[in-house]
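User: Quick sanity check before I run a bigger batch. Here is a single chain. Can you write out its predicted 3D structure?
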Amino acid sequence: MNVPSALTHLECSVCGAQHSAFELQTVCRKCGKALLARYDLQKAKNALKKETLKQSKSSLWKYFPVLPIQREQHIVTLGEEITPLVALEKTREELGVKQLWMKDEGLLPTGSFKARGLAMAISKAKEFSVSDVCIPSAGNAAGASSAYAARASIKCHVFLPQDTPQMNVKECRAYGADIELIQGNISDAAKAMNEKKRIHPDWFDVSTLKEPYRLEGKNTMGYEHAEQLDWNLPDVILYPTGGGTGLIGMWKAFDEMEELGLIGSKRPRMVSVQSSGCAPVVRAFNQKKGESEFWQDAATIASGLRVPKAFADHLILDALYASKGCAVEVDDTEILLTVHSLAAKEGLLICPEGAATFVALKNLARIGFVKKTDAIVLFNTASGTKYADILN
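Assistant: Done. Predicted structure follows.
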């Protein structure tokens, strides 16, 4: 990685105000909304040619010119390999669709896609000499932040709902994180963290889209699977949506890739998948709203989907509307059945959030939203082994 980052500035996702990318930032100082990293893509173009990328090592850091870390020595890595795009022949035949793949994020360090975002956020925190980070989490983000913070010699403070899967709590403890278990859901954990942060103003908040760089780690999912499909984007992407950073990140990455000359103007229909026990994006989409309302009494076995209101839900909904996609909810009973049936049928033990996309796909195929000629990518966001408590 002898080519520098082409990062130029940060831009508000709502009001467009520009902020410096060379000092520590959180959200827009004018309107309080999420900031997006912007790059000199003409500068990055020479380093990100198809042949060059093909010959690069299998790591998300191969996209360094469009990643926000300024100096290579600040990278905090646990070995983030390119995750496989697994062909699902049996499920494809069952549904009668042209092509079907699952992007298996469970093979990343700490066993989930959260490694992408937290590798980037913690690397940037290290670059800015941050000593302490804090995060509210449903589980996997806490594990990833704890691991990368330990690697970077940064103290990590995690705030988790009391009913967080025990594997997540135990891994945070193993990484040496400071843990607080909170009655309620991730929103309650965030409130508790913000109260504590008033006493510790030096803690840097790496919550979803409360800083600009976790999103940049998730962008790499878009670059990766486009490259794996020989720079042809699929017709449909189904993404399990809690905070929705990955969906937002991929949509941003597609525009970057077009300007870089890697892809054309075609875009997939983006599908946001949630549990019927917590479906604020689905409700907002069905009501044609620009943002969601807080979901009361959120409950689902898919802990990563139990986000009553995503901070940047306007960006999720923007992508759904722009892509002519949709948002769908699925039942927990079907999610659990799919975890077991997919393991037996395809040999893939996936997380309940990933299983939700399989349920959604079947439902969408039934009503004709997904066509037989479509090429489809599903995202499994974590290893099923992290959810041993839901297995029989």
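Residues 85-109+215-390 form a domain with the Rossmann fold fold (CATH 3.40.50.1100).

User: Great, the batch can go ahead then.
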